Amino acid sequence: MTGGAFQRLFEASRGRYVAEQLRSIQRAGERRPLKYFNIKNEHLGQFSPSNLTGTEYPQPKDFHRKLCDLIRNAEQRVKFASLYVGTGTGNNSEKELELLDALESFSSKEGCEIRVVMDSSRALRPVSLFQSEGKTSSAIELHRRLQKKKKAAPKKIIKLASCCDGTGRNGVYLFDVVREPLKSILPSPLDEVAGVFHVKAYIVDDKLILSGANLSEEYFSDRQDRYVILENGAGGLVDFYSDLIDVLCAASNKFDGPTSSSGKRWDTSNDSERKSRLVSSLTYLFDGSKDPEISHLDEDISALAVPTFQFPPRFFSSNQANKLPFLSDVETTRNLLETFLEEYPRGSLYLSSAYLNPTRFLLPTLSRFGSNQEGGGGSFLLTAGTKSHGFSRKPGQGNGSSKRDWVPRVFEQYYQTISNELHSGGILLYQRENWTFHAKGVWLCGGNKENSSLPTIPNEFDIVAGIVGSGNFGERSEKRDVESNCIFLLNNSGQSGNKLQKQLKHEWNEMCPYVEPYKPSQDSSQNMFRWAHIPLLKQFF
C-alpha cells in the first residue's frame, strides 16, 4: 500500500486526518499527532530459529521459551508491563517457575535495570500455596525474587516530564486504576471487575514483544494469543516502550513487600498531583508534532508503527484534565476503520477479541463493511466459543456448576445482537478442545474478497494495516481498563517480501481451522440474560 490511500490511513492513525463519517464529532488538528516509528524487515524477530519465512505461527510454549531465553541472555534491561505474573506456587507451574528463576538470575547482575509494572488489584489477589497452608500473591513472589540481588542498579533519571520522584528504580510497581474509596470497599477479586491495568509489553535489551498474553502457566501452555517480536531497537520503538514503562512505574506504587501496604490501601494524598504528572509525561512521550513528514517510503521500510494509549473515562477526577492531548486508542481505531472504508469500499475487516462486545460507537462502523452495493468485503469477527471461553470450565475443574458458567452465555446474547447488524462476513467462534481463546487484534485487507463466506485471508499483500496489543475493542476496554495497542501500516512498495505482512496473514489463518460460524441459539433460557444489554452493565464485559 503506497500513495494517497497509505498517506490518509497513516494520517488517520496519528489523528491528523479525520474520516468524513466522524467529522461532526472530531476535527483534524484539534489534538497533537501521535508519534510514529519506521519498521524494517530486519526489525521483525522470530520465535523459532527454523521459522525464517515467518510462516509458522508462534504457540504459547514458543512465547515462554523465547522470553526465558532472552532474559537469561540479557545484558542491560528487563522491563515488563502486564496484568500480572504467575506466582509459581501452584500445582503444575513449572513454566512460571522457569520465568521467575530467569528474572531472579538477571536481577543479580550489577548495574542491571529490571522493572515490572502490574495491576494493583490483580497483583495483590491472594493465591493459595500448593500443598501448604497460607496465601501469597503475584506481587509478593515477584518482589521476593527480585530482592535476591548482589547490588542495586544506579537510579536512572527518566528523560521525560517529571513524574513522582523522577527516578527509575528497580523493583515491582503496582498501578491503581480503581479510585478510592471504591478500591478499599470492594473485596478481591471483585475490585478487578471495576477496572484493571491491562497493558502488555515485554522488553529485554533491544527487543520488544507485543502481545495480549499475561505471564502465567496457562498463557505459556494452552491459551491462544498473539505475539510480535521486534528487535534491533525497532527504529526507536523499543526505547519508546521502555520509556512508557518508566512513566507508568513512576505513576504507580512501588511494592516493597507484604508490609509495604496495609491490605489494598496506599497513600493517596498526592493522587491528583501524581496523575497530573502522568498526563504531562505521556503527552511528552506520545507527541509526534516534531516527527518528520512522510512523502515517500523507502523500499526497506516494511511498516510504520503508531503506538496508542487509553485511560478509562473516570480515571481522572472531575477537577482534572480528563483527556490527553492526543487521540485515545478507541478514537484512533475507529478513525482508522472509517478512513479505511473511504479508501477501500470493498475491503474487509478481520477482528479478533477474547470478549466480543463492541461499543455502540464501534458497532455501526463494523456494520458498514460489506454494505457497498457493488458487493465484496465484510466484517469477520473472531471470538471465543463456549468451549474455549475464558470463563468456561477447564479440564480438571469437575463437572458441577461453576460461579462463572453464566458469563459465556451473556456473551452469546451480545453475539446475536452483533450478528443482526452485520451485512457480510459474520461472527466466528474459536472452539478448540482444552484450549482458551485470548487473541485480540485487527487485520485490514484492501483486496476484493471474492468469497465473503470464507474466513481466511487469501493474500498477504492485501493486508494494509494491522493492530496488535492489549485491547479487546469492547465496552470494558473503553470504559474500565487501561489499554495500549500498536497500529502497523504496511508498505507494499518494497521489492522483497514484507515479513510482517506474512506473519499477520499466517497468524489469522492458523486460527481458522478451529473456528465455526456463529449460529443464534434457539434456547429460550437465553432470555434470562437480556439484562446484560443494559448500557451500564455492558461496561463490565
Structural class: alpha+beta
Helix content: 25-40%
Report the principal-axis shape.
Answer: globular
The main sheet orders its strands as: 1-14-21-20-19-15-16-17-22
Low-confidence stretches: 150-167
Give the percentage of residues in beta strands. Answer: 15-25%
Give average pLDDT, whole number: 87
How many alpha or pi helices?
15
How many runs of DSSP E, i.e. beta strands?
A: 22
Strand count, sense and barrel status of the largest sheet are: 9 strands, mixed
- Cα separation of the termini: 36 Å
CA radius of gyration is 22 Å
Describe this structure in words.
With 541 residues, this protein is α+β, with helices and mostly antiparallel strands. It is 27% helix and 18% strand. Strand 16, helix 12 (407-421) and strand 17 (425-430) form a beta-alpha-beta unit. The chain is globular and about 65 Å long. Mean pLDDT is 87; it is low at 150-167.
What is the topological layout?
Blueprint: H1 4-14, E1 37-40, H2 60-72, E2 77-81, H3 94-107, E3 113-119, H4 120-123, E4 127-128, E5 135-136, H5 138-146, E6 156-157, E7 167-168, E8 171-175, H6 182-185, H7 190-193, E9 201-204, E10 207-211, E11 223-224, E12 227-230, H8 237-250, E13 253-255, H9 271-286, E14 301-307, H10 329-343, E15 348-352, H11 362-367, E16 378-384, H12 407-421, E17 425-430, E18 436-437, E19 441-445, E20 463-469, H13 475-479, E21 485-490, H14 499-511, E22 515-517, H15 535-538
Helix pairs in contact: 1-10, 2-3, 8-9
